[in-house]
Amino acid sequence: MIGRIISALVGREMGRRSGGSGGTSGAVKGVVAMSVLRRMGPLGMILGGGYAAKKAYDRNRARKSGY
């Protein structure tokens, strides 16, 4: 369950980075990325969650600073 949530977050962030709206292409990228991260074991899940959390933190900080 947590893996699917992280997969969705990673896919959304990857979709935003590539300039898309984060729709279907982001979901596909998230599934592929999470399948790779799952094979890495717990370290992969930590890396995926950390990636999504860092992007969300940076976006929040930029929004607060008015950038």
From TrEMBL:
Name the record gives this protein? Uncharacterized protein
